[in-house]
Amino acid sequence: MKLVTAKQMQELDSKTIEGIGIPSLVLMENAARGVADAAIRFFPNVKRILVVAGKGNNGGDGIAAGRILKIRNRLDVTVYLPYEENQLKEDCKVQYKIAFQVGIKFTKELPDLKEFDLIIDAIFGTGFTPPVAGRWAEVIRKVNDSGKPILAVDIPSGISSDSGEVVEPVVKADLTVTFALPKYGQVLYPSASYCGKVLVRDISIPVDLLAENIKTELIEVNKLKHLIPKRLPYTYKNKEGHVFILGGSPGFTGAVIMSAKAATEAGAGLVTVGVAESLNPIVEQTLVEEMSKPLPEEEKGFLHPLLGDFIFETDDYKRFTSLVLGPGMGRYKGGQELLKDFLTRWDKPIVIDADGLNNLADMGKKGKQLLKERKIPAVLTPHVGEMQRLTGLYRGEIITNQIEVARQFAVENNCYVVLKSARTVIATPEGEAFVNVRGTPAMAKGGVGDVLSGILGALIGKMPIKEALLLGVSLHSIAGEIAEKNKDTESVRATDLISAIPYAYRFIRNFNPAVDKSNYIPF
Questions:
Q1: How do residues 204-231 score in pLDDT, each as one tens digit?
Q2: 402 and 164 Cβ atoms separated by less than 8 Å
Q3: Which of 224, 250, 267, 298 minimizes the number of CB atoms within 10 Å of its CB?
Q4: How far does Cα 424 stand from its chain's mean position?
Q5: Rounded to whole angstroms, how far apart are CA atoms 67 and 100?
Q6: Strands (E), 117-181
Q7: Looking at domain 223-522, which CATH architecture does it have?
Q8: In whole angstroms, what is the distance from residue 188 CA to residue 16 CA?
Q9: What is the third-level CATH fold of 6-214?
Q10: Please, what is the angle between helix 494-509 and helix 253-266, to 10°?
C-alpha cells in the first residue's frame, strides 16, 4: 500500500477528476459513505451524532456522511458549521444544500457536547498546514475534552499529512477514515498517536493506475509470504548462507552473541562470530550452534584495526556470504581503521550496526565516500541517536521526518538505511522507502537492535537485499509482538525475540488479513 504526502494526494485527486473524468462530488459521496459505514461498524450504539464541519471539502465529506447516517440509519444528526453559505467552497456548498433539504440540523454555535454519542471531526483535511488558530483552536480543545468518541474524516484536524510533527491543538481521534491511501502523518509519530485506528477507504481513485511514481509504501504482511526463502530438498548448510559477525568489546560480548543466535533462528546455515582473542572464551562458552573465531586485538578486548589481513587472506573469507559489523565493538580510532578496511575490501553484502555506525560517523566525509564507492551497497541500521551522529540533524527532525531523512541519506550515500524508531523506515539507494508499522513498545530494550542485525545478516546472505530487509524487519517486529503476548510488556527481553522468530515466520506464512489486529486496515 502506497503512502502519500498532501501534494501527492492532491495530484491523485486532480488526475482522477480532470484526467479520468470522475466528478469530485462522486469522490465526496464515496468518502462520505466510508465515514458513515465506519461510524456504524465501530460505534454501533450511537444515536446522536455531531458533525463538526469546516468550509472546505473535508467539511463537505462530513456533512454528506451526516446526511447518510440520518437517512439510512435514522440517527439524530446535528452539524456545527460556523459559516454563511457564501463562505463555503463549491462542493461543500452543494452538500450543505442537500443536507438542509433532508432535515439535517445546522448550528453556528457549538452545542453542548454532552448531548452527543459520537463526534465526527470534519474541520480540516489533508491539505491543511498547522498550526490551528482562532475559533477552531478552542473548538478542538473542547472536542478533545468532551470525553466522547471521535471519528476523524481523512485525517484528524490540525495534523500535517507530511510529517509526524504535532503542533497543538490537534484533534485526538479514536478512529480515522482516510481516503484512497494513508498519509505520512498517519504513520509517523507522534502524530500517528492522534489517529487511533486508521481505515483506508477506496473512493474510486484508481490508485494502481495513477500512483506508479510514488516511491513510499507501507509494508503489508500479506505481501511478505512469497519472500520467505524456500529450501530445496537437496540443500545443505553452506548453501543456506554463512554469516560472519564481527564485534564485541569488554562488557559488550552479549551484543554479538544475541546477533549470532538471531541469525541462526532466522535461517542462516552457518554463523561465525569474530571477537578479540581475550574475549573468545566468553563467546565460545555461550554459543552452541554458532562458531567463534578469536582475532588479533589492539588492546585487551578491542579488535585490531589490521585484522582484515587475518580474514581476507584465508579460505574463511571465501566461505562467508554476509557480514554484520559493529555490535558491541566499541568506538575507537582503531575501529575506524577496521571499518575502512572492510568497507573497501569486503565485496559481499554487509550490515553496519551499532558501534560500526558510530565509528562510521566519526570518519566524517571519508566514511560516506567509502559507502558511495561500494559496488554492493551497505546496509546501515541506525537508531535515532546514531542517525543524529551520521547526519548532524536534531533528534526531533529525524523522528518527525523519518521517511525523508532515511531516503535522502540512502540516495546520497549509495546505501540501504534501516532507520529504527517507534516506526522503522527502510530506504534504498534508488530512493524507495518502506514503512513498517508493526512492533510494540515492549521492544524498547537493550539488545533488540542486535537481534535485528543478526536477522538481516542471515537474510542478505541468501536473497536480494531489498527483499531481505522487508522480510527481516517484519520478522523482527512481529517477533516482538509475539514475545509481548507470551509475557508482560515490561518483561520482554531481546532474547525473547530470538525465541519468537520461528513463530513470526509461521505468522507470516499463515497470515489472514481478515483477522489482522494491526491499525491500518483497507476498508
A1: 999 989 998 999 999 999 999 999 999 9
A2: yes
A3: 250
A4: 4
A5: 9
A6: 118-122, 150-153, 175-179
A7: 3-Layer(aba) Sandwich (3.40)
A8: 27
A9: Rossmann fold (3.40.50)
A10: 20
User: How far apart are the C-alpha atoms of 228 and 494, rounded to whole Å?
Assistant: 23
**CB of 255 within 8 A of CB of 248?**
yes
> How far apart, in whole angstroms, are the C-alpha atoms of residue 479 and residue 499?
8
- Tell me how far apart the alpha carbons of residues 18 and 15 are, in angstroms, rounded to a whole number: 5
Q: Look up residue 176 and give its amino acid.
A: T
**Is pLDDT above 50 for 523?**
no
Q: What does the pLDDT look like over 275-318, one tens digit per residue?
A: 999 999 999 999 999 999 999 998 899 999 999 998 998 888 99
> CB–CB of 476/490 below 8 Å?
no
Residue the block writes with cell 530494550 = 445
Question: Where do the CATH 3.40.50.10260 domains begin and end in the chain?
Answer: 6-214
From 382, 371, 457, 453, select the one nearest 415 (Cα to Cα): 371
Q: Work out the angle between the directed axes of helices 365-373 and 333-345 (0-180°, nearest 10).
A: 20
DSSP annotation of 45 reads: T
The rounded Cα 365 to chain-centroid distance in angstroms is 28
